[in-house]
Write a structure and sequence with these properties.
Blueprint: E1 2-3, E2 46-47, E3 49-50, H1 52-58, E4 63-64, E5 70-77, E6 85-92, H2 98-108, E7 129-135, E8 138-143, H3 154-169, E9 176-181, E10 184-185, E11 208-215, E12 224-229, E13 233-241, E14 250-254, E15 260-265, E16 276-285, E17 290-298, E18 300-303
Parallel strand pairs: 1-14, 3-5, 8-9, 11-18
Antiparallel strand pairs: 2-4, 5-6, 7-8, 9-10, 11-12, 12-15, 13-16, 14-15, 16-17
Helix pairs in contact: 2-3
Length: about 300
């Protein structure tokens, strides 16, 4: 399967991309972001720099042909297993802002339908990240006052703190994580702040997240149709069909960071928002976990 190139950043699971300066990576609030599908350049591809946590839960990092990229993990609290967290892969080109980006994404939560009911959002609505500072390995995360707006709940606070500490502790040099609200110490900072690897749930098989058609801003027709997965995968089978079961014609590529299968349709005029798409897939992640299935999905259409 051919691979696509891109100069944007993906975020792994509600997969949202991040742009080099901004962090669209997260704002995962739209599981997909704009990917540009094209034949890979002849230039040598560079290995993405990955944290040990990323390699532990998702295997060797994929490659990129644009700049220097960093792969890391964000841990979201589990709704089914209180106190446990679920790891998701993320990517960014902006090394200085990795910690800030990770915390912002954590606060934003995961609205991906494929994980509905499985993840817990412990941060009260309106909670904002004010600053992340680091000195001699001590990282201080300063939140807005909304963090303490909810009624004290030890389970909720423990979940948010555990996810925060695990997320930040994966980065080189981080020794301790401190929590402030509006620049002041709070009850959260008195809870144990050790990164507990035993709190990380074992990863299940890869999941299909969504099928999204991408088009240029103001364009009438789509350029590509992307089947997004929740982690880097090797796509062995990917077939997109209409409601009549007839496969759409076109070339299939593997996306940047291996997070999606991309159809470059022969006839882009047939793709409309909300139309039913039948998807058949067989994928394997970088640690050898297999998944295959068939789904009926409503097509999303997004502009980039």
């Amino acid at each position: 399967m051919r691979r696509t190139g891109s100069n944007q950043v993906y975020m792994g699971v509600e997969m949202r991309f991040i742009h080099i300066a901004l962090f669209t990576i997260v704002v995962f609030t739209s599981l997909a972001a704009c990917t540009r599908s094209q034949e890979p350049p002849a230039s040598r591809q560079a290995r993405v720099y990955a944290t040990k946590a990323f390699e532990k839960y998702f295997g060797p990092a994929p490659t990129t042909d644009k700049g220097t990229c960093f792969a890391f993990v964000i841990y979201f609290p589990s709704a089914k297993d209180p106190g446990k967290v679920v790891p998701f892969p993320f990517f960014s080109f902006d090394e200085p802002s990795l910690k800030k980006v990770a915390v912002q994404r954590l606060i934003g939560g995961m609205a991906e339908k494929s994980y509905q009911g499985e993840l817990f959002q412990p941060f009260p609505p309106g909670t904002r990240l004010l600053d992340v500072t680091e000195k001699n390995g001590d990282v201080t995360v300063n939140f807005s006052v909304e963090l303490l707006g909810a009624k004290p709940n030890n389970a909720s606070e423990r979940a948010s703190l555990n996810a925060l500490v695990l997320t930040l502790s994966q980065f080189s040099g981080v020794k301790e994580v401190r929590v402030q609200v509006d620049g002041r110490q709070t009850r959260l900072d008195k809870l144990p702040r050790a990164a507990d690897e035993h709190a990380v749930l074992q990863q299940s098989a890869p999941r299909l997240l969504s099928v999204t058609a991408m088009r240029g801003k103001g364009a009438k027709n789509v350029e590509e149709v992307d089947a997004f997965f929740d982690r880097p995968v090797e796509i062995k089978v990917l077939q997109l069909s209409g409601a009549d079961g007839k496969p759409f014609e076109g070339d299939i590529y593997q996306s940047v960071f291996d997070m999606a299968g991309v159809l470059k349709p022969k006839d882009p005029t047939v793709f409309k928002a909300g139309m039913p798409i039948k998807v058949r897939w067989h994928v394997t992640d970088k640690l050898g976990r297999n998944a295959e299935g068939e789904s009926d999905i409503q097509l999303e259409v997004k502009e980039h």
